[in-house]
Amino acid sequence: MAEGKEDQMPDKAPPAEVDDKTEAKLILYHWTQSFSSQKVRLVIAEKGLKCEEHDVSLPLSEHNEPWFMRLNASGEVPVLIHKENIICDATQIIDYLEDTFVNEKTPRLMPEEGSMYYPRVQHYRELLDSLPMDAYTHGCILHPELAVDSMIPAYATTRIRKNGHQPWLCGEFFSLADVSLAVTLHRLKFIGLARRSWGNGKRPNLEAYYERVLKRQAFHKVLGHVNNILISAVLPTAFRVAKKRAPKVFGTTLLAGFLAGIGYFAFVCARKRFSNLLLSIRGRQSYL
Questions:
Q1: Does the structure show a pLDDT above 50 at 7?
Q2: Inter-helix orientation angle 176-190/90-100, to 10°
Q3: CA 184, 190, 195 angle in degrees (round to 5)?
Q4: What are the transmembrane regions (predicted)?
Q5: How far apart are the first and last CA of the chain?
Q6: How far apart, in whole angstroms, are the C-alpha atoms of residue 47 and residue 131?
Q7: Residue 231 neighbours by CB distance under 10 Å
Q8: 47-76 pLDDT, tens per residue?
Q9: Global model pTM greater than 0.90
Q10: Which residue intervals of the chain are DSSP H helices?
């Protein structure tokens, strides 16, 4: 497998050309921390499509506001608008992008139907997309003592090991299966389970795979800055609350500081509880 230095330029997806079928603007309503939204945004970036993005904050209940409910009555993100089409399901959005933007300059992330790779990519895509990662995220943050080892890393490692020298999940090309796995691994790292799942030499093949993912320009653009619960989720939400509700600069500063302090305290407590859980597990293993 090819290895690269940390400062190497990530893989770059070529920009898509527009034609009469695709010249209409893409508009995506999403939330930065939403697992489903991240998959859609990564597909858009990998395909090099131009898209106008609007962040809809779930903690601020912006998805329940009337203007958004008119787009999607279920109040869920992401939502894609293209011409007269409004697509409200992440899988349907990704399929729509693959079926609509078929210009030869636009990278294909799904093999042609009938090829030997098509059922393989579809299999891993369906398998990974069936996991309730948003619910798993909330559970791990609020109740880290109940977190269990995910079967994803072991399963993915088996697949990657079988591929041998091939860099991606289903061969030499980065596919929708890799989109699902890449965002899943990133989510596990985001909630602090990377070392437990594959780090420190535990699963070197999977660790090497994730390092290759990190070097892709599209991944860096979409998820490169989403790496810490406090910095990536708590603080931005706190400042948006402050900006939205505090009428004065002084009040904004106080409110932002207060909310950030609460968020940091909750984050530290969660990490402490998670560390205690790991210590207790190790203690039981030593006893056994």
A1: no
A2: 140
A3: 90
A4: 249-270
A5: 38
A6: 24
A7: 12
A8: 999 999 999 999 889 999 999 999 999 999
A9: no
A10: 35-46, 66-69, 90-100, 118-129, 133-142, 152-163, 176-190, 194-197, 204-214, 217-223, 235-245, 249-287
